[in-house]
Amino acid sequence: MVYTTPMERPMVTFTEQEKKVLDDCIRTLHRLDSPFASIVSSRVRDVEQLAEIVDRAPSPNTDLFHKKKGRNKDTLAKKLLKHGLGHVVDLPTKTVLGHGLTVSKLHLFGLLMKLISTGEELGEYKETIEKEYNDLLFKLMAEDLYTSIVSDQKIDARWVTKAAHELITMWDLRTSEYVESFGLALRDLWKARHTLVPVLGTLLGTIEIMKISALLPPIWIDFLAHAAENEEIGFSLEEFLFDLRYEELALLRLKMAEMNVGVIDRNTAYEMVGKSEPTHNELHVALDLYKSFMGRQHTAKMRSYRNEEGPKRSLEEYFVIYLLSLQK
Asked: I want to staple 95 with a disulfide (CB 3.0 to 4.6 A). Which of 77, 171, 193, 303 is the partner?
């Protein structure tokens, strides 16, 4: 395969872990004479063919006209931060195709997830399949978060440039320095969210309850200490914990004051706003988290556009900004 510059690296279609679990699953399906063996194999070939097309697309860091002051990661980052991200027609071809590749891989592992739930054939691979599926979801989430940060033209901080560099790396190689640590940290918080019984009272009280949880790793404890100094981050934490919008939580506090109630749990909170508690799929924990993130992220951006009260970012975005700000 030919690359336009000696510095370019080929994009990895499947990681070693992804390739191993796919090979193991296909081998098992063939051994059991399952009709899904050929289906999964065909899907793998489709992804590989798409990856070849993505890999042939020009790198976002490459100047096709070979100018002396051509495009590189630094110049592209500066352009993104100056002009923002426009419509899809303005994005590099490799960006659009690469995003589709990640989604295609997600659907491939999603198929394996469905096979797990409908039979015992792939039961022994359940944990590894879930991990690869979840990692792909977190890559999509990270790309969304980097895009959101870079698109916010009101920000002027060192970590914004770092976010731009990470986004460009994802465009080029479909990976990022922080995806693994970010994904692991989010899984820990989501697990704590379902294990703990959070209570709604004072904002500081909510943060303190999370800080004393033995389920959380040190990075979250440090982040929550930072959150205690920022009211908006605290409100985004409440949205994450209760899966209710800031506006609903504000209404709850008014009702609590009227009823002279100091604290309430999650179940009572849903009852008081007339909502049923969301159901969660144990087989798709990360997907539940991703859907929750997308809803909260969209609502936060609408508040920002309208200059309304409440958090202007999701908890995940605040957390990524915190991680980026730690880098020297």
From this structure: 171
